[in-house]
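User: Sequence recovery, please. Input:
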């Protein structure tokens, strides 16, 4: 399914854009599940100023969706109407060491790269990012954490651009962090963040990162087409435990499967559709609710339209 090409209209309204616009860009290659339809328009801004200009000029009626590394994302088979914004390049992909054992990182930086740079600079306290398969933008939006650390523990401030094209700086208090959540409005696209670490020895930090890597490889299907943890933990319990107790380990729908290794991970065995994966997740939620009364909350973002039915195709 292809959408109407609106790139010409956008360029007429924003002639000074420096980023790249692509019409009807397939999005499956940008997601770890390798599923999903097209973006009506994919925009890759050159930097924060270019992003702000684009949003200021873009008509309000055109929807905006932001994607990062695509690690905890399902793009539905019918694709995404409007503009999909994907940050990358030098404008959003650099990490800089600051005084006082701090780092500034663009939000397209992979979490694990931030951890590596911190280790090389002798900055301790950020090694837990080695175990998070996403980017800094996603870590800010969902207060990502692993192996005893969370984003709220280390964030100083973040910058972002709202739907009107206005740039904001958010203090730690402004972020309103809670478990896998922040209170910053959904229309804000984070562009960079400053993190606070503490003095450490590079060899000790690297050893901790190696331990985290080994633990992930031993317990998670990280070499599969997966989206990471599917559901938030229904504290005080673990999501995988209530999924396992409901008999869902290894459950399949089409070519989507609940991982045998870690049953809070869904995997694409090769030819699953987005509908297979999302449908399997909903079936897991149904069985867990029936077995324990627990309502699992999706941790993976699901965006876009379902594939049209044969009756809808003309």
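Assistant: Recovered sequence (314 residues):
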């Amino acid at each position: 399914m292809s959408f109407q090409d609106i790139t010409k209209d956008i360029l007429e309204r924003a002639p000074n854009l420096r980023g790249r616009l692509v019409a009807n860009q397939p999005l499956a290659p940008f997601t770890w599940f390798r599923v999903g339809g097209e973006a009506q328009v994919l925009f890759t801004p050159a930097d924060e100023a270019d992003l702000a200009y684009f949003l200021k000029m873009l008509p309000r009626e055109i929807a905006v969706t932001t994607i990062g590394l695509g690690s905890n994302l399902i793009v539905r088979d019918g694709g995404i109407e409007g503009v999909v914004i994907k940050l990358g390049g030098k404008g959003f992909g650099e990490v800089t060491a600051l005084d006082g054992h701090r780092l500034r990182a663009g939000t397209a930086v992979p979490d694990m790269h931030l951890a590596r740079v911190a280790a090389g600079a002798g900055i301790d306290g950020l090694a837990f990012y080695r175990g998070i398969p996403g980017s800094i933008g996603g870590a800010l939006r969902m207060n990502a954490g692993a192996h005893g650390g969370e984003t709220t523990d280390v964030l100083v401030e973040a910058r972002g651009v709202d739907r009107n094209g206005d740039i904001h700086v958010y203090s730690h208090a402004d972020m309103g962090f809670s478990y896998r959540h922040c209170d910053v409005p959904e229309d804000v696209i984070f562009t960079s963040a400053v993190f606070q670490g503490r003095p450490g020895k590079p060899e000790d930090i690297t050893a901790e990162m190696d331990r985290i890597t080994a633990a992930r490889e031993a317990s998670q299907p990280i070499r599969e087409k997966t989206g990471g943890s599917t559901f938030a933990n229904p504290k005080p319990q673990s999501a995988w435990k209530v999924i396992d107790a409901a008999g869902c380990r290894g459950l399949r729908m089409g070519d989507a499967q609940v991982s045998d290794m870690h049953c809070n991970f869904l995997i694409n065995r090769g030819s699953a559709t987005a509908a297979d994966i999302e449908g399997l997740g909903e079936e897991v939620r149904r069985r867990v609710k029936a077995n324990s009364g627990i309502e699992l909350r999706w941790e993976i973002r699901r965006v876009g339209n379902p594939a049209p039915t044969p009756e809808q195709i003309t």
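Helices lie at 7-13, 48-57, 111-120, 136-142, 172-175, 202-219, 239-245, 274-292.
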